[in-house]
Amino acid sequence: MLPNLFSVYERLLLIRPYTIPSILALGAFAHIFMNNAIIPNLLLLDLISLVGAWGSLIYVVEYSHKLTDGRGHTPIIYPFVFFMIFVLTAIIRQPLTLITYIFMLVATIIYSLKARNAVFGPFLFIFRGLVDVGLFLTIILFYTTNLSWNLLWPISAIYLISVSRNLIGDVRDMRCVEFTFPRKFGAIWSYVVSFVLLAAATITNQHILVNLPLFVILLLILIRIQPYLLHKLFVVSTAAFFINFSADLLSESLILTNILYLSAFFIFTYDCVPRKTNNFWQ
Description:
Helix content is 70%, strand content 0%. The longest helix is centred in the N-terminal third of the chain and has 30 residues, at 40-69. The N and C termini lie far apart (45 Å). By secondary structure, it is mainly alpha-helical. The chain is built from twelve helices and no strands.
């Protein structure tokens, strides 16, 4: 019997498709960081491996949500397929990356407990950044097992951006999820911490045009726009930052990459234009 296509669609939405561009941009950045060029066939394998890893890990978070808010059951076949995609690419490229997967899995499990632990829950958002760091290191290990200190700056940026963004996500969900940082300390302090973390991330790269997407989010945090919209713009800006960083490594035009970023950014103002056909104004 064929599966219900709408049910499959619903289950696949759980991998947060809106985050996929930032995951791909992170993978491309790691690839370019190691090669100072784009090697198409290897880049494709790199990106497939990250989607496999991310898809399998996010279902762990969904399982935790199922225990706390009673959302529907997801068959094991979905995370298994994504996990096998990662395992196959890892075996082809570098089996050692299976260790980084375990590292990401442990970080994901700890992070997913934030809605279930009143004592430690408010601080578990710091583990979310370790998942993105693990994704970055996975690609690095595809090319070398000799990790050097020059990885410290990109790793720091990746971690700080991820944790800062996740904290905004917790502000967005503070009415629905217990034991998070915003529920314990309030939205104002959450914005302050998020701002400080993101500001620290800008120090890792001194190029203003590379950091432009981060500066935009810093401004939006300062004026405290609606957290649901802020988180969406943060996701777009994260992808744009990695694309800018990659373009800088390739000595490509950052003006063009930022024009593309601003094009994606300002599309979110579409519903705010005062016209009769916009639901926003009805």
